[in-house]
Amino acid sequence: MAQHVRVVLVDDLDGSEASDTVSFGLDGQQYEMDLSDANAAQLREALAPFVAAARRSSGGRRRSAAPRSRRPVADRDQSAAVREWARQNGHKVSGRGRIPNAVVRAFEERDAAAEPVAEAPKKRKPVLKIADPFNPEQEAS
């Protein structure tokens, strides 16, 4: 059975059929809108005086003032478990906010130490070779 899939862009302003996705940036944020020809022209016309007076940026993404956390935000249950463990083991942690990386690492190392160490693979038994019954001159080893 054949299928024909048609993707229709819908204008984000008025719900009519859109013809284009328009991208623009403001205050360090990038935006995209699906717009009809008429609304795209209206947006470009409204921005024209500002674009004419503006300087072009390098096009690269700007970094936010605060660097992003390298570790994703942990869920509440995990944070609660880390805090409880830390208090029981003499670490100072607040009731809210970020848990120091050293405490999180110590908690994770505790988990790693509790896991059983995998045994080394056992040596395989030697395979016995049997003489070829069709070749009586060959010896078994």
Q: Would you give an account of this structure?
A:
With about 140 residues, this protein is α+β, with helices and mostly antiparallel strands. Among the domains are: about 1-55, 2-Layer Sandwich (Wheat Germ Agglutinin (Isolectin 2), domain 1), CATH 3.30.60.230; about 75-115, Irregular (Dihydrolipoamide Transferase). It is built from three helices and two strands; from the N terminus they run ββααα. The protein has helices spanning about 35-55, 75-90, 100-115; strands spanning about 20-25, 30-35. The chain has a two-stranded antiparallel sheet with strand order 1-2. Strand 1 and strand 2 form a beta hairpin. The model has no long low-confidence stretch (mean pLDDT about 80).
Attribute tags:
single chain; 141 residues; alpha+beta; Wheat Germ Agglutinin (Isolectin 2), domain 1; Dihydrolipoamide Transferase; two-stranded antiparallel ribbon; acyltransferase activity
